Amino acid sequence: MAIYRDLSFSERRDAANTAKQALLEKYKSKPSADDPAVQARLAERRAILEAREKREAEKAQLKAERLAREAAEKAKREAEAESARAKAEQEAAELARIREQEEEERLTVQLGLEAAQKAKRDARYAARKARGRRAPPGR
Fold it and tell me: In what ranges is there compositional bias, type Basic residues (predicted)?
């Protein structure tokens, strides 16, 4: 088991100075902005960004084309549905007109039949009246 020992003030100060010196050396060893390696990395990053922007523009264009195509297809489907609905309404109106005509014809025939039956009944009644009143049986 290791024995923990407190560092003295001078040891802590020396360790901090050593760490600062190491950071300073690391910073100084960084290449400058006009270094060819740095320029190459920047050019590579620009190329990557330009390629990304180009891909995004192509993707946006494809999306716009797809949306336009879908909108045209939707408009076409809606126009077809509207024409089908109008045709169905026209057929329903025609069927209703035909049913109404048939109902009128049926009522006309029925009224004619009822008028003929009433005429027969009235004729029988008039004939009975014309024959005169007979005495009921047993009188």
Answer: 126-139
Tell me the C-alpha distance between 44 and 51, whole Å: 11
| Residue that is written with structure tokens 């960084």 in the block | 30
Q: How far apart are CA 95 and CA 89, in angstroms?
A: 10
Q: Is residue 59 part of a domain?
A: yes
Domain that holds residue 85: 35-130
> Residue 10: inside a domain, yes or no?
no
Q: What is the DSSP letter of 138?
A: T
- Does residue 13 fall inside a structural domain? no
- Whether 122 is covered by a domain: the verdict is yes
Q: How far apart are CA 125 and CA 119, in angstroms?
A: 10
**Position 26: which residue type?**
K
In the chain, the largest separation of any two C-alpha atoms, in whole Å, equals 161
pLDDT tens digit string along 52-107? 999 999 999 999 999 999 999 999 999 999 999 999 999 999 999 999 999 999 99
pLDDT class of 131 with cuts at 50, 70, 90: confident
Total domains in the chain come to: 1
